[in-house]
C-alpha cells in the first residue's frame, strides 16, 4: 500500500506540469465565452486529442452579482488503455531507477481508477462582471503560440512555455493559480474547506483574501497595487473578517 501511494504521488508530480501544459492549450468553445460574458446557465464537455476531458458549467449569477462557474478536468484512464499503459510504464521506469524489486512494482502499481482520480482537477470560480469581460476580450485574441501535444504510439511529446501562453490562459492562470483570486481549486483532500475566501472591492482595485482556520492568510489585488506591505495586508484581512467584503 505504501508503494502504491508513493507511485501515485510520483505520478502526480511528474505529470502535473504535462497535464497543465495540455489543458492550457485547449481553448473552451466560443459558445462558453459568450455565455460567460452574460453569465447565462450553460454546460459543455469536450475531450482533447491527448485524452483530457473537460467540463465547463456556468451555474448563473449569485446574489452578490458574481457569476459562479465550475471547471473540471481529468483523464479517463479506465476507458483509455493506451494512456494507462503509458502512465504505468512511466511509473515503473522511475521505480526501477530507485531499485524497487520488480515483483513489488507490479503489486504496487495503481489501478486505472486510481490514476483517473489522481488526474482530476476541479475548480470553482466566482467572476465579477469586469473579470468576465476581461476573459472575453482576452479569448478573442486567440494568441496561443505553444504547439499542440504530439501523441504517437502511446508516447506524448510536449513543448510548452508560459511565455507563449494565450492571453486567455495567462488571465485564467492569474485568476486560478495566484495567491488569492476568484477561483479556488477543490482538492481531493478537502483542504480548500479550511479556507474562507473573500473579495474586497475598492474604488481602484479588488483585493482577494484567503483566510485559513489556523490563522494564515493570503492577499492579492487586481489591478495590482504593487508589492503589498504588512499594514495594507492586515487592513484588507481585517475588512474581510469584519464583514466589509463579499464572501465567495
Word description of this protein:
This protein has 248 residues and is of the alpha+beta class. Helix content is 40%, strand content 25%. The protein has a five-stranded antiparallel sheet. A four-stranded antiparallel sheet has the order 10-9-8-11, with helices on one face. It has a two-stranded antiparallel sheet with strand order 5-6. The relative contact order is 0.12. Mean pLDDT is 79; it is low at 1-5 and 13-23.
Helix content range of the residues, please?
25-40%
| Beta strand % | 25-35%
Low-confidence stretches: 1-5, 13-23
Mind telling me the C-alpha Rg? 20 Å
Described by the principal axes of the CA atoms, the overall outline is globular
Spatial strand order of the main sheet: 1-2-3-4-7
Biggest pleated-sheet summary = 5 strands, antiparallel
Helix and strand composition category: alpha+beta
What is the tally of beta strands? 11
Terminal CA distance reads 38 Å
What is the ordering of alpha helices and beta strands? HHEEEHHHEHEEHEEEEHE
Q: Could you tell me the mean pLDDT? A: 79
Number of helices: 8
